[in-house]
Amino acid sequence: SVMYVAIDSSTCNIADTAFFTVNIEQAESFAAQMSFEPPPPCGVDTLFVDLAFTGSGADSLVWDMGDGIVYNTTTVNHFYTDPGTYTVTMEAYDLVCNKTETISQEVSFLGPQLFEVIVPNVITPNGDQQNDEVKFEDADPTGEFNVIIWNRWGAKVYESNSPSNNWNGTKENGKALEEGLYYYELIYKDRCSGQDEQLKTGYIHLFR
């Protein structure tokens, strides 16, 4: 409580007293947090994302969706129509204390395609740009992937966890392999089909 006393000493020496209460509250702490669960990046023509500010103490918000669209709301419902990788950036401002925090999250949208990995059964790594490599480009780049290749005696000659790594008929140390028949085992899972892991096995003929 605060007491305020006013005295008129110039005339009749009159005094008056007033009381009032001042409540001091702790300011809300400032913390930027974002709620976002990335949806599967493919299998649809339009990708819908749902985001929300779950922090505290922010007076102003700016959401940059990475495609030229900006929002200033607490929650965001946004659609992507063009395939690509977008960086969503949320900037939270505490105008009283002049603080700013930024959080970023990538969103991948691959479009309506679903993935089925097709492994060629012949490789001719002779530098003529024809069948020089075994490519796994039909695999979902955001899904699970593992391929192992063995020679006819059961010795592993190659392994990769990335579909962007093509096999050019060499060992993992880069040494060229001899002509012959090689066995592969491929395990992959794409995020769009909703299926369990897929297993593909087969043979690759290496000719030079």
Structure characterization notes:
It is a single chain. The chain starts with a strand and ends with a strand. It is built from no helices and 14 strands. The chain has two domains: about 35-110, Immunoglobulin-like, CATH 2.60.40; about 120-205, Immunoglobulin-like, CATH 2.60.40. The chain has a five-stranded mixed β-sheet, with no helix packed on it. It has a four-stranded antiparallel β-sheet with strand order 6-5-8-9, with no helix packed on it. Strands 3-4-7 form a three-stranded antiparallel β-sheet, with no helix packed on it. It is rod-shaped and about 120 Å long. With about 210 residues, the chain is an all-beta fold.
Task: Break the fold down into its secondary structure elements and pairings.
Layout: E1 2-8, E2 14-20, E3 34-36, E4 47-53, E5 60-64, E6 70-71, E7 75-80, E8 84-94, E9 99-109, E10 122-123, E11 144-150, E12 156-160, E13 180-189, E14 198-206
Parallel strand pairs: 10-14
Antiparallel strand pairs: 1-2, 3-4, 4-7, 5-6, 5-8, 8-9, 11-12, 11-13, 13-14
Q: What oligomerization state is this entry in?
A: single chain
Q: Mean pLDDT, as a whole number?
A: 84
Which structural category fits the helices and strands? Answer: mainly beta
Q: Beta fraction of the residues?
A: 35-45%
Please summarize the sheet with the most strands.
Answer: 5 strands, mixed
Question: What value does the Rg take, in angstroms?
Answer: 32 Å
CATH topology of the largest domain: Immunoglobulin-like
State the distance separating the first and last CA atoms. 94 Å
Number of domains: 2
CATH top-level class of the largest domain: Mainly Beta
Secondary-structure element sequence?
Answer: EEEEEEEEEEEEEE
Sum up the overall morphology in one term.
rod-shaped
Helix content: under 10%
